[in-house]
């Protein structure tokens, strides 16, 4: 008997998955109408589901005790709390958008590491949405699912997130990175296959507790919005790289100037990385990773000692480039390395962490993988 049948007494009608993501480059550019370049990971949220006809949704998780049940008709922002707010939010936003999803029994399973900043929340929303749609035979554009998932996280869960995570979870393809222009709302699939070039992309979870992340994220966003208002532009994407020095001179606050410098130079780095990858010059992307980390450390000030030690150690051990990835204040680094040097770089990071009395880091496979889909 399956785990699903043990909980609900019947076998499921199907299972749907949505992956986590890692952003290659383009940090804190999404809410500035900028550019991002994520890949989807093999690690995913899996939602096994069966339809029911009483207008109720029941959710269970392999990582939580018990079953949480709610009425679809009663859903409103804040009506379901804790982890179940995410599947409830997916159901709420689909109904708000006019989709007749009906009731369901859901079992959530995950192999995404908790607290690593690999966007498990967006994956949970997307996996639940495609499961609820799939149960009723409803097919909608993946980008629309992503937009609805973002709306659910913003309005139902109450997290002011951008659209990158959901778009990566829904729209990435195997062997590619997703070049996503937030202002234009356009995507391109950029070839990204490190193994074909004798390379590997390491993702290392530094196991640092996320420190002040909510308040600091809000502060960074506010500084960017303040700068855009002072410069008379709708968002910092409108500040041209070639005009950066002039724009900085017009800002009165030094902290705000540094925030702006990061965003504008980071958008240029995404452009350069995409062009190099399209040209088959993946090794040359490494220095852009490192420059991004320096900018995030010095101008945006969102790194922590574990992230900095991991990046510095990876570079010293021969990585072609390395940077923190995600929102900052914890999470993961990525490092572009020769495939033959993978073990050497990981060992060096582990030894450096031991010397600093940090928690032992972990690593995971960063093979560029496809977006959300039905699996059975």
From TrEMBL:
Sequence ranges assigned to domain Galactokinase N-terminal in this UniProt record: 3-50
One Pfam family from the record: GalKase_gal_bdg
Enzyme Commission code(s) on record: 2.7.1.6
Domain GHMP kinase C-terminal stretches: 276-352
UniProt key word Nucleotide-binding: yes
Alphabetically ordered keywords of this record: ATP-binding, Carbohydrate metabolism, Galactose metabolism, Kinase, Nucleotide-binding, Transferase
Protein name: Galactokinase
InterPro entries: Galactokinase, Galactokinase_CS, GalKase_N, GHMP_kinase_C_dom, GHMP_kinase_C_sf, GHMP_kinase_N_dom, GHMP_knse_ATP-bd_CS, Mevalonate/galactokinase
Family stated for the protein in its record: Belongs to the GHMP kinase family. GalK subfamily.
Sequence ranges assigned to domain GHMP kinase N-terminal in this UniProt record: 86-171
Gene3D superfamilies: 3.30.230.10, GHMP kinase, C-terminal domain
Gene that encodes the chain: galK
């Amino acid at each position: 008997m399956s785990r699903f049948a043990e909980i609900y007494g019947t076998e499921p009608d199907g299972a749907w998955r949505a992956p986590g993501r890692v952003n290659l480059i383009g940090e804190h550019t999404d809410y500035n109408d900028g550019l991002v370049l994520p890949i989807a990971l093999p690690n995913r949220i899996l939602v096994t589901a069966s339809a029911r006809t009483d207008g109720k949704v029941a959710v269970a998780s392999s990582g939580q005790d018990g079953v949480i049940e709610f009425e679809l008709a009663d859903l409103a922002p804040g009506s379901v709390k804790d982890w179940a707010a995410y599947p409830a939010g997916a159901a709420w936003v689909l109904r708000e958008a006019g989709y007749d999803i009906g009731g369901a029994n859901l079992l959530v399973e995950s192999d995404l590491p908790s607290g690593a900043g690999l966007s498990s929340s967006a994956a949970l929303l997307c996996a639940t949405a495609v499961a609820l749609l799939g149960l009723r035979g409803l097919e909608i554009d993946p980008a629309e699912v992503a937009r609805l998932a973002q709306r659910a996280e913003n309005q139902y869960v109450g997290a002011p997130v951008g659209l990158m995570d959901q778009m990566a979870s829904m729209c990435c393809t195997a062997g590619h990175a997703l070049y996503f222009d937030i202002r234009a709302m356009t995507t391109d699939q950029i070839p990204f296959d490190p193994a074909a070039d004798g390379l590997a992309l390491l993702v290392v979870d530094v196991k640092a507790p996320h420190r002040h992340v909510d308040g600091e994220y809000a502060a960074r966003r506010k500084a960017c919005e303040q700068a855009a208002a002072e410069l008379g532009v709708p968002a910092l994407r409108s500040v041209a790289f070639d005009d950066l020095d002039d724009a900085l001179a017009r800002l009165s606050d030094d902290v705000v100037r540094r925030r702006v410098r990061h965003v504008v130079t980071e958008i240029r780095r995404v452009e350069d990385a995409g062009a190099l990858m399209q040209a088959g010059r993946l090794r040359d992307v490494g220095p852009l990773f490192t420059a991004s980390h320096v900018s995030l450390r010095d101008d945006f000030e969102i790194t922590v000692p574990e992230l900095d030690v991991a990046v510095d150690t990876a570079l010293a051990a021969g990585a072609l480039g390395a940077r923190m990835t995600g929102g900052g204040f914890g999470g993961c680094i990525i490092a572009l390395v020769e495939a033959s040097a993978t073990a050497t770089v990981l060992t060096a990071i582990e030894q450096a962490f031991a010397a600093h009395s940090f928690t032992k880091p972990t690593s995971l496979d960063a093979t560029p993988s496809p977006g959300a889909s039905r699996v059975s």
